[in-house]
Fold this protein.
Amino acid sequence: MGRFTFFAIAVLLAGCMVGPDYRRPAVDTPQSFQYEEKDARDTANTDWWKRFDDPVLDALIVEALANNRTVKIAAANIEQAAGVLMQTRAQLFPQISYSGSATRERLTQLSATPVPSSIPNPQSAYQLFAGATWEIDLWGRIQRLTEAARASLFATVEARRGVILSLVASVAAGYLQLVTLDDQLEIAERTLAVYGETVKQFELKFKYGQVSAMNVEQAKSQYETAAAAIPPIKSQTVQTENAICILLARNPGHIERGRPLSQLALPAVPAGLPSQLLERRPDIAQAEQNLVAANAQIAAARALYFPAISLTGAFGTASSDLSNLFKGPARMWSYAGSFTGPIFTAGAIAGQVKQAEAQQKAALLFYENAIQSAFGDVENALSSYKQSFDQLQDQERLVRALREYARLARMQYDGGYTQYLTVLYAETQLFPAELNYAQIHGSALSSIVTIYQAMGGGWVNEADKLTEAQAPPGS
């Protein structure tokens, strides 16, 4: 009979919970991506950054996952949210406390009504109590608050996954930018050295009257053009290194290099459908959990219209003699039930309900916007990938043509068939084309990083494992 009564009460309490219950909103999901890659592979759950085949990049990402302070802040936020859930859920259970006191008191004999001689003076008093209070959650208010706190905890977990996703992508993109700048610096310094030799040759020829002063100044203009391109590249390199150091929780300084840009492997494009983004993207999952929490807050606010029922009880002992404190006559107990409910609140409860409904509406719109933004991110990333590699092929053909143009122009000038102005024009076209080729090459590789970041996937969980495996004790 006792078990039947318990389950009957549980069913009654569940049936009395104030709504609305959460249901995932319908989403208009496209069937496929417009720029979907035909050769895409199912790599959503792999450590994709290892596909670049650069051990230095792998080590930098592991270091960032272990030490990055933003990840640690996100982990601390999870602990805080877990504490809020624990605190909120505790209200579903009786709260038991204890108290005790011991006093020694002497009353004055000079008052208008002196203490009778039959009453001891001074007096002692000892008390020991255990008490319990329990709010019966008949309308589900505490359960809805617990549901909201649990959803907020899940949202915080997804926020941390989002931080990890962004961190890995930022380290990889920063490293690719760094090796791109290295490649551009190598091109600029190599070109500067070639132009420097040309200046020396022309100065020597001018000395013996073989070329004019204008030819010398033309050669010097080439040299200074190449020289002027080097400081901005070095400046960007330092800035990029420092940005990566911050992600690694290091002081600003040098970042190691592995393979040069031309030797980096090309990871496969991850396969995926638009509908899978709802499960893959941490920001979408976070937005949905915030929507769940906001939905539960509506029910918690509406429950304030109904009476709150509480039970209280106390058991203890009281005696003027410490030796008699635990004997039967010293026992004391009491229990009581109470209920309170609103009659007139001047709109206080209605205001809370309205506020909760508005928060739910905002959370719903944010959730829908997060989904559409995710679709846009993937489409943009796939389009950028396609256009970058198409542009890279075009730029490669341009560089080959300009190199041949410069070679033939130099041969004609050395043979006396053309002026140096032709060589100057050809080499002036080649230098920025080579720099641009390196930039496009780096951007094309970075577009792969952007695709993985936009699609999310199980690789975030794989990266999350590294934060736990590599973190030092006590961190």
Residues 141-207 form the longest helix (67 residues).
